[in-house]
Amino acid sequence: MISRKAIVALVLIVSISAFAVGAYVYKRNAQAEQQAVAISQSEHLVRVHSPVLGPREAPVTIVEFFDPACEACRAFYPIVKNLMRQYPADVRLVIRYAPFHRGADEVIKLLEAARKQDRFIPVLESLLDTQPSWADHGSPRLELAYRAAAQAGLDMQRAQVDMAAPTMDAVIQQDVQDLTALQVNKTPTFFVNGRALPSFGAKQLPDLVSEEIAKAKK
Predict the structure, then answer these.
(1) Is 178 a residue whose pLDDT tops 80?
(2) Rounded average pLDDT over 56-64
(3) Which of 5-19, 55-69, 86-100, 198-212 has the weakest average pLDDT?
(4) Residue 147's pLDDT band (boundaries 50, 70, 90)?
(5) Are 156 and 149 in contact (CB under 8 A)?
(6) pLDDT at 37 over 50
(7) How far is CA 145 from CA 6, 71, 72, 128, 159, in A?
């Protein structure tokens, strides 16, 4: 006859084993779910059509959801530019478009046309420099944005043809779908190696970038 102590011990062993198996399964499921979320997020963060500045093989990727008519994007541009200058081999910037302001979609098409002429950076910087003159949120003065692009060396006749292409609308539509999936509701919104910037500030972005660079070099 099995003693009461043996039965209790057996029950404890079975219970502990069941708990261990359950904890293992839970952990595996949680890891699989986290991996699936990470994969899904990465698909929404970077697209083939996205402008990429800096070395493509850089260990740290900054993804910026950007509106050319956004004053905060204009203010953050020197910070991002300085980071890329500070870490020329370690950081790349992927720009995603977030046309939250009126007229921003047309200026985005202007930037994409500039990219086709290898004038993306000069046109971008000219548009940001002159943003206060054209980016009236109620009634943007797009003719001044076009003038700024032309002054940066953009062939406007060729640009107007490129801006009318259906692919331009497709680029904007895809970026809007991705920012919606990622619940991006303000610009600029930054992700550094997939990590969302924890708070909105000029110090937080450099801190997160330097942290990711340090991790990559371990």
Answers:
(1) yes
(2) 95
(3) 5-19
(4) very high
(5) yes
(6) no
(7) 84, 15, 18, 9, 13
